[in-house]
Amino acid sequence: MLPVLVRMVPAVHTTGSPLTPAVAEDIIWATADSRDCLEHLAVEGETRLLSIMFFVRAQDSEQARDMVGQLMNRVLSGAGHLAGWRLHECASVDL
Question: Per its UniProt entry, which superkingdom is the organism in (predicted)?
Answer without folding.
Answer: Bacteria
